[in-house]
Design brief:
The structure is a single chain. By secondary structure, this protein is of the alpha+beta class. The protein has four domains: 98 residues, Reverse transcriptase/Diguanylate cyclase domain (Alpha-Beta Plaits, 2-Layer Sandwich), CATH 3.30.70; 63 residues, MutS, DNA mismatch repair protein, domain I (3-Layer(aba) Sandwich), CATH 3.40.1170.60; 52 residues, Orthogonal Bundle (DNA polymerase, domain 1), CATH 1.10.150.20; 95 residues, 2-Layer Sandwich (Dna Ligase, domain 1). The protein contains 13 helices and twelve strands. The strands form three sheets. A five-stranded mixed β-sheet has the order 5-6-1-7-8. It has a four-stranded antiparallel β-sheet with strand order 9-12-10-11. A hairpin with a 4-residue loop joins strand 10 and strand 11.
């Protein structure tokens, strides 16, 4: 049975809302983020700013150096939540099986929905039109048989685009994908695959399953399945997210705890930005840190804390570092949420 999944991603959401409310900002480089003078970070920016190289999660001071005329607006998270709720009301006209990833991004399972004679393509286009007319911003949509492909599809024709990958075209679409498009493949893993001569999903598919896993390691099973278009993850309303974290692998190992602590404020700021984007859907239960040492072993440390501060993470860093007291190549900080019961859902099949 082929599922029908729609991934909706608002186009530069925070910036789009600000331009909607103040038309004088249109066609000017703008960003929403923290104060450049106080180690602020860019949450998002419009496409005019991106032409200068400005990107999300970039230090605001660096963004201003790239684009001296950049207008940086303070985030209005409460207001963005209201706009997000308006968009979700449109989603619920088509399905109740909605998995929000953040204020501006969500998966919808429309497999069992009768609207437009069950056409996910027409539902995706209808959602886009209604958001544009009722909310005044644009969204991009990807329609595919699973979450992995739907998310890639939503990015394919950005901004203000629709991309559909019907079941009979998934093989052709997947084979030409660069490995960097696979969920979980960062710079280090991509380089490892490139060293093996693997640059596209077609290259992965030339391997036998266990041969590929032996070559790549335990993560190979996940990549092998994605390269064959296999992603059975269900769309889970709201309660599926158990944690939010940010981590960074440094080009040069951090030699001591002092150098690790120097990186903490920026990591904490990025975590706060990510939590804001998630919409504060769950109460925080724990704070945690992750350290990967120069010998590639990892350790985590956590504590019960509903509102973790910079000092909370400093203490956790100290405790985690003492376990090995050696150079560190990766640092991560995060929070775990109180768990909720997932909502049940059933599916029946219609034509794609």
């Amino acid at each position: 049975m082929n599922r029908k999944i729609i991934h909706i991603d608002c186009d530069c959401f925070y910036a789009a809302v600000e331009m909607r409310d103040d038309p004088s900002l249109r066609h000017r480089p703008i960003a929403v983020g923290g104060d450049p003078g106080r180690r602020g970070v860019i949450s998002t920016c419009n496409y005019e700013a991106r032409e200068y190289g400005v990107r999300s999660a970039m230090a605001s001071a660096h963004a201003r150096r790239l684009c001296p005329e950049l207008i940086i607006l303070p985030p209005r998270i409460g207001y963005y939540k209201e706009v997000s709720q308006q968009i979700h009301r449109i989603f619920r006209m088509f399905t109740d099986t909605i998995e929000p990833l953040s204020l501006d991004e969500a998966y919808l399972d429309v497999t069992e929905q009768p609207h437009y004679r069950g056409s996910a393509t027409r539902m995706g286009e209808a959602i886009r039109k209604q958001v544009r007319s009722q909310v005044g911003i644009t969204v991009s949509a990807g329609v595919a048989p699973n979450k992995f492909l739907a998310k890639i599809a939503s990015d394919w024709n950005k901004p203000d685009g629709l991309c559909v990958i019907p079941p009979h075209k998934t093989d052709t679409f997947i084979q030409q994908l660069p490995v960097e498009k696979l969920h979980g493949v960062g710079r280090v893993t991509a380089q490892k695959l490139h060293n093996l001569g693997i640059r596209t999903c077609a290259d992965i598919r030339r391997y036998e399953r266990f041969e590929f896993i032996d070559s790549v390691g335990g993560f190979g099973e996940h990549l092998y399945r994605l390269a064959h278009g296999i992603d059975e993850r269900p769309v889970q309303p709201r309660s599926s997210r158990k944690s939010v974290s940010v981590e960074h692998t440094y080009p040069n190992d951090l030699p001591d705890i002092a150098s690790c602590q120097e990186k903490l404020p920026e990591l904490k700021q990025k975590l706060e930005e990510r939590l804001q984007r998630s919409g504060g859907l769950h109460p925080i239960k724990k704070a945690f840190v992750k350290l990967k040492f120069s010998d590639f072993t990892s350790t985590t440390m956590e504590c019960c804390e509903g509102n973790p501060s910079l000092d909370t993470y400093r203490s956790l860093f100290d405790q985690a570092f003492k376990r090995k007291a050696m150079a560190v190549r990766l640092l991560g900080v995060g929070v775990r949420f109180q768990e909720h019961e997932p909502a049940p859902h059933n599916q029946i099949a219609f034509e794609f």
